[in-house]
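ABC transporter ATP-binding protein, pasting as requested.
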Amino acid sequence: MGGNDDAGRRDGRTEAGGDTRTAERVDDPMVEVRELRKQYGRRGPVALRGIDFTVGRGELFGLLGPNGAGKTTTLGILTTRVRPTSGTARIDGIDVVAGPQAVKRRIAVMPQQSNLDRSLTALENLTFHGAYYGMRLKDRRRRSRELLEQFGLADRADEQVENFSGGMAQRLLIARALMHRPPLLFLDEPTTGLDPQSRLFLWDRVTDLHRSGTTIMLTTHDMAEADRLCERIAIVDHGERIALDTPAGLRDLLPGGRGIELVLDAHDDPAPLLAELGETESAELEQGRWRVRCYGDSRLGEAIAVAEQRGAVVRDVRRLEGSLEDVFVHLTGRELR
Ligand SMILES: Nc1ncnc2c1ncn2[C@@H]1O[C@H](COP(=O)(O)OP(=O)(O)OP(=O)(O)O)[C@@H](O)[C@H]1O
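Structure tokens follow.
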């Protein structure tokens, strides 16, 4: 990175990363994570480097970051599967290490990989799960029917899961997770691999659940998903929280809120040459090819003209949309994927 981007990014970190903004003022926490660290093995990778965040009761909260950022590890700790190296995590006031059984009763997890029993019917998958949680037969049956209805699977209740499409299996996974009426639901990359229609359907169900008061924590590397669903989002990268705010608050981290992005061929960092267009930041994508962002009100034609006058070859140009993707690139200098 070059140009005067560093100042912008540092601002972003201290503002969004600090706990002084409304972003971290949570009155009634359902999830509290403090200084959470995780190293796998004595010499293994450090997945978390001291993460902090709080999720309010009834909130729909997103953990957003690229592959390997530490999202699944965070979820693993909160769901008592992974032991933290240090730091604390509490669910509904209960420490996840000290009280794993009490935590498990309060949570539901929709895992990244389906672990449905494919030889059973949809209904059986739900009722067996209810039995595991000690639900009475009548309640199990009623709750299963209710959830199959809610997730658009009522007419497939007696069909073996083996025959289900990816979208149907995904919906059944959430339905199963909700059998014991947990107040907190974890969704780990819930729509990865789904077709657009199944994705929309799932988003609607998640929104319904949120409206009905369930606290939901979602991990995703899908910016659109986080933007559309979440009330607040923690962006994580390399095991660190680099921002935490509402989607609108995160967008405000872009200097000036708008700007232009150019892909240029140039020998040296072209950012200083374009400084007259406003605050700039740059990243070398490959040898001699740069991505430069100019924040401010410049027009596309003006930016191209200035770049070409300075000897750069313009390969691509676009107006920044102020999307979370744009914010992520601003904070990290990298694309999300
Ligand atoms: N069981 C494990 N043993 C060793 N290293 C692990 C283990 N699980 C995760 N890691 C490492 O910890 C880091 C964070 O991984 P994690 O799965 O938490 O990230 P993620 O953000 O969920 O990514 P993804 O979207 O790919 O699941 C990575 O470097 C990963 O290789």
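Note for the archive: DSSP finds eleven helices and 15 strands in the chain.
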